[in-house]
Structures are given as C-alpha cells and as structure tokens.
TrEMBL record:
Residues 66-134 form the Transposase Tc1-like domain. It comes from the Eukaryota. InterPro entries: Homeodomain-like_sf (IPR009057), RNaseH_sf (IPR036397), Transposase_5 (IPR052338), Transposase_Tc1-like (IPR002492), WH-like_DNA-bd_sf (IPR036388). One of its GO terms (biological process) is DNA transposition. It comes from Labeo rohita. This is Transposase-like protein. Gene3D superfamilies: Ribonuclease H-like superfamily/Ribonuclease H, Winged helix-like DNA-binding domain superfamily/Winged helix DNA-binding domain. PANTHER family: TRANSPOSABLE ELEMENT TC1 TRANSPOSASE, TRANSPOSABLE ELEMENT-RELATED. It holds the Pfam family HTH_Tnp_Tc3_2. One of its GO terms (molecular function) is DNA binding.
C-alpha cells in the first residue's frame, strides 16, 4: 500500500514521541502492516521517503498484461511475434521476448499441441451411451471381451507439429489440441487383444473395406 508523505511523517512523529507500534495502530492512521513497515524502513534508512524501485521500468501495466493474456487465450497457437504486433496496436511497444516473459509469468508455456481424435456430436453421444451402459461392469466381465480394431498407417509423410501455450493441466483443453483424422493410404491392418494377451496383427489386402 502506498501512503502519502504526511501520513508517513505522522507515524514517525508518534514513534519518536515514544508511541509503540501497537499504540500507533490503535489510532487507525494506516493499516497495521503499513505502520510497521514505515517504522522499520525509518530505523534502517533514517528517512520516510519511499525507496525508488531499481532496474528498468516495466514496459507494460497490469491491465495491459491482462489484455495480452486475453489475446493469447483467444488464439492459443499465435506466435510471440504475432502477439507483440497485436499488443502494439493496443499501445504497448514490446518485443516478442517481452511477450514470452509476460506469458510465462502467468504460467502460459509453449508446448506442442496434443493430438486428439476429432469427435462429432454423434461420436460423443455414442460414447456417453456406451459408458452409461457398461459403467458397472467388473474386471471379470471385461475379461470375457475381445477388443478388435482396424487401422491405416502411412509409410511416410509429415508428422504435423504445432506449438501452443498452455498452463499445467491444460494439455487436452479444446483450444490447446490439434484435431486429427484418419487417412487410410498404404497399409490397412487388423488386430485384437483381451485380458489373456495380444492377438496377431493381420495385414489386410488392398481395397479391403474396413468396418
């Protein structure tokens, strides 16, 4: 809390006249923590003047920092340079490096976007129905089930990397993931497993329909 010079002078005057910290607090001239801090600073420096902060002044205010955070959360994949440019339009002249520091202060770290299957509303509804239907099954019940699936694999191609800024625990936040879809191209395979172990992997002939 910042106090005016007159208030600081009054607190020190009472202190010099024998008033204890508790006595001065009772006058309610300022909050308890402020009174003790002013007395402590006076004892250490012999002055009631507020010590000026060292180092270069901060380029942005707290309000401007909050604006930067809103801009970033609106587009998680925006680069530091892009954010700096948009922030500049709001009146803040800062480099991409400053942008990264401000975001780090708020826990926003650049990470590769997690890949997550793109689900339609029907997919989500079907999964919810499945969970409600089999939610009470025991490990013994599931031990009687054989799980099978088909998949397509590309032998080559870009992995598709993308960086996003996220906080701890936001790995699968909707705005932090990169939706993926299957693109059968070269090899189609079928496999299965159960509680007894993994079955053999079967390579399917070309043009075999997978259901």
């Amino acid at each position: 809390m910042v106090t005016c010079k007159e208030t600081r002078a009054a607190i020190i005057a009472l202190h010099k006249n024998g008033f204890t910290g508790k006595d001065i607090v009772a006058t309610k001239i300022a909050p308890k923590s402020t009174i003790y801090r002013i007395i402590k600073n006076f004892k250490e420096r012999g002055s009631i003047l507020v010590k000026k902060a060292s180092g270069r002044p901060r380029k942005s205010s707290k309000r401007q920092d909050r604006l930067l955070k809103r801009i970033q959360l609106r587009d998680r994949s925006a680069t530091s340079a892009e954010l700096a440019q948009e922030w500049q339009q709001a009146g803040v002249s800062a480099s991409a490096r400053t942008v990264r520091r401000r975001l780090l202060e708020d826990g926003l770290v650049s990470r590769r976007a997690a890949k997550k299957p793109l689900l339609s509303k029907k997919n989500i509804r079907d999964r919810l129905i499945f969970c409600k239907k089999y939610g009470e099954w025991t490990a013994e019940d599931w031990g009687k089930v054989i799980f099978s699936d088909e998949a397509s694999f590309r032998l080559f191609g870009a992995s598709g990397k993308r960086l996003v800024r996220r906080r701890k625990g936001e790995r699968y936040h909707q705005s932090c993931v990169m939706p993926t879809v299957k693109h059968p191209e070269t090899i189609n395979v079928w496999g299965c497993f159960s509680s007894k172990g993994v079955g053999s992997l079967t390579i399917l002939p070309k043009n075999t329909a997978m259901n």
